[in-house]
Amino acid sequence: MSEVGNLDLSQPIDLNDPGASAFLGDLQGNILKSHGRRKTTNLFVTFTGEVADTKALLASLAADGTITSAAEQKKQRDRKENGQPGPKGEAPGEETATFLFLSAQGYSYIGETAPEDEPFQKGMGRADADLGDPAQSAWDEPFNAPSEAPIHALLILANENSSSLDKAASDMQERIVSAGIRVVGKIDGRGLKNGNGHDVEHFGYVDGISQPLLTCSDVQEASDNATAANAKADSLGAPKSVKPFDPSFSPEATVLVPDPLSPKGGFGSFFVFRQLEQNVDGFKKAEAELGKLLPKGQEERAGAMIVGRFEDGTPVARYGEEIGPIGPKGTPDNHFSYDIDPDGEKCPFQAHIRKTNPRGDVERQFGAGPEAERRVLFPRRGVTYGSRETHDDDVLNEDASHPSGGVGLLFMAYNKDIARQFEFMQRDWANSPTFVTGNPGIDPIIGQSGQSWPENHGGGAKVVHDFHGFVRMKGGEYFFAPSLSGLQAL
Ligand code: HEM
Ligand code: MN
């Protein structure tokens, strides 16, 4: 356990604790808790100027408050909740959050020591991690040319209001170009929601429900939701887990990395960015084909077995075929583990959320302690990209078009240790046909290396539907989000 002052970093952090304020003022936002905006501009940049000018510009972004600390993010949220304007007169809820990330190539350009982590130092394209990614030369711009146009840094700007966001992004571009920092790629995140107001991804499923939680307020909220979920389950006769998923995680073990640039012991975090294109048309057709194998009226359960949740977020392990989707208005149920479905009869072992968070399966199958699987989990901070024909700009309707490309997920995640967390989850869980037991096949959403769907959802190997390639990796990079004191020391 390490402490900063009297702050215990091995427990979720109380954002209101005065003893945490120095720590929170030095840590970038979005690490402990999501910035919460649905619209983002992601600027991938190459350094071309003098090293001294580059460093001075990066330092100034930290010094003048442009980069949003965890403390400032909390203040913005409070102002939004109280309907108060921002300090620059921004309408309530329309303050821009800004985050800065450096790649290993970025550290090397400015001649500074990069934090230690093997995948980070090699870069996503060169990491011989065996993730099943296409070769880097086949990726999209700006990710495919590490020698001509290396990505040295990433700037993420976020705002609920697109015109405020566009203004902030063009101000930022003007400011950085003066130091020879060139934008080589600009990708807009454009969050979607469903009719219940929940965030959804392009296949139409509620996303962002289950996360390792790193702040006291998030843990408290999850505990309230758990109580409500159990009451609902009781009223519907759904089973209760003896050992439900515990969403409370240690920030120190999950995301926090000592920042080598910081003169005062500040922290940063590794950041995984992957552009994952989704073939909605192909996926929806395959999902419908699979649905035809199920009893009439239960077609929706096909998708639920692919993802592990119905489209509305209802976990299929708990509500299965007897109850089906429960149409949550509040937060979808996350208070369960697979002790209610140990043999994968309701939620197959290959379902996306079971592959990526086995909730006790590793302990049941291998006799390992709970940490053996919890140490792999990490907070996801992704947002969807690309546009669809929808009635409203942000709401994904039933009759929205089904594009075969051009839309997808900007997968983003903070890690303490990329090899132990993101790479392990992708390679050893999602891509492994034999994880967690028998031969369930690979993750039908993100498994790379030949996706298929065994007819017998438990252990059989007969392929009836090919789920290959509905999610395509278009490129990405590993970054580090330095502390504010570290940036200011440049
Ligand atoms: C959960 C979709 C990529 C890891 C989910 C959920 C959906 C989803 C619908 C359920 C919401 C929730 O439980 O929070 C997708 C899509 C992807 C994608 C469409 C690609 C286009 C990834 C990748 C990873 C990943 C690349 C990691 C390698 C997870 C994890 C969960 C999750 C850890 C939570 C599982 C749990 O705690 O039960 N995803 N995902 N996802 N996904 Fe993905
Ligand atoms: Mn459907």
Automatic annotation (TrEMBL):
Coiled coil: none annotated. Keywords: Heme, Iron, Metal-binding, Oxidoreductase, Peroxidase. Residues 69-94 are annotated as: Disordered. Pfam families: DyP_N. Residues 72-82 have a biased composition (Basic and acidic residues). SUPFAM superfamilies: Dimeric alpha+beta barrel (SSF54909). Residues 26-190 form the DyP dimeric alpha+beta barrel domain. It comes from the Bacteria. One of its GO terms (cellular component) is cytosol. Its cofactor is heme b. GO terms for molecular function: heme binding; metal ion binding; peroxidase activity. PANTHER family: DEFERROCHELATASE, DEFERROCHELATASE/PEROXIDASE. Belongs to the DyP-type peroxidase family. This is Peroxidase.
